[in-house]
Amino acid sequence: MERLLYFQGLNCYLGCVVNGARLLGVAYDKAMASLWSETEFKYFPVNGLYLTERMMTDLNKLGMQIEQLHCNSAEETARHLSTFSVGEWMIVGMDAFYISDNPFYKKLHGTHYFLAAKDQGSALRYMDPTYNTATLNISYEELVAHAFDIRRLSVGEASNLNSNMYQEIHEVIRVLQEQTITTQIRECKGQKQKDAELLGKYVEAMLNNRYLYAHYLQRIGKHDRYDLFYQPEYYSRWISLRNGLYKLSLAPDYETVIEQVCTMYEQLIDDELHLAQQILNDHPLSSS
């Protein structure tokens, strides 16, 4: 039985990508090495989220290939599924309302992703990284009827992907010092108040990257020394910031909420700048 990498709080699609890379034998952790400094996120209309583009690019360099198969009808979905071999992995997007093992089954609609592979029988075995469950089954008929997105996972030619932790930290400091999010937040008033919702989704992408970068630090043995990324309160503050932006998009007293959200963000950035400088101080040659 395959073991899952479990990231509490991580977006379900990213959880599938990382675990899919691991199942394929791709050195996925190398693709996380520069995620702290990433600010250019890609917007995915299918699930209404910003997601890392940098990790996807680097995973591709490492040999992971993700092919999107459109599911515009049940017939098209069935045709795509017929091209998969037994044991070949795919990422599947479905409405959680129709996934019998999901906590929101027949309770709440919402996009959800999981990893699946054809089995010998009429069902597909699947794993759900969001809930850390690895021994589940879903019928072929259910998937054909309700899947809105299928992505074939495969391995292709890999190239070298070099990373330097200290170069990344220099970039982190530059990006954090030059950030303009507080300026954008202060513009979320009047006719632009609804822009705060998109900023909330952008902040969630930043949060997802920090979950992944924390895993990278752990993989290279730096988690004990640089523990900010392992403090539950740190992530709670990011979540409060995201929720504050969603509140701002609707709040009648937006001026008050703007100040609260800006303060939360500035304090988080100050803490991250302090950590980044600590990392450089521990490696004096990196400052040159």
In total, how many beta strands?
8
Shape: globular
> What is the SS-derived class?
alpha+beta
- The proportion of residues in beta strands is 15-25%
Helix content: 40-55%
State the helix count. 9
Strand order of the largest sheet: 3-8-4-5-6-7
Organism: Paenibacillus silvae
Protein name: Butirosin biosynthesis protein H N-terminal domain-containing protein
Summarize this structure as a short list of keywords or feature phrases.
alpha+beta; 6-stranded antiparallel sheet; two-stranded antiparallel ribbon; 9 helices; 8 strands; globular
Summarize the structure.
This protein has 288 residues and is α+β, with helices and mostly antiparallel strands. It has nine helices and eight strands. This is Butirosin biosynthesis protein H N-terminal domain-containing protein.
What does this structure look like?
- With 288 residues, the protein is an alpha+beta fold.
- The chain has helices at residues 12-23, 54-61, 74-81, 140-146, 165-177, 181-186, 195-219, 232-248, 254-281; strands at 41-44, 49-52, 64-70, 89-95, 111-118, 123-128, 133-139, 147-155.
- Strands 3-8-4-5-6-7 form a six-stranded antiparallel sheet, with helices on both faces. Strands 1-2 form a two-stranded antiparallel ribbon.
- A hairpin with a 4-residue loop joins strand 1 and strand 2 (49-52).
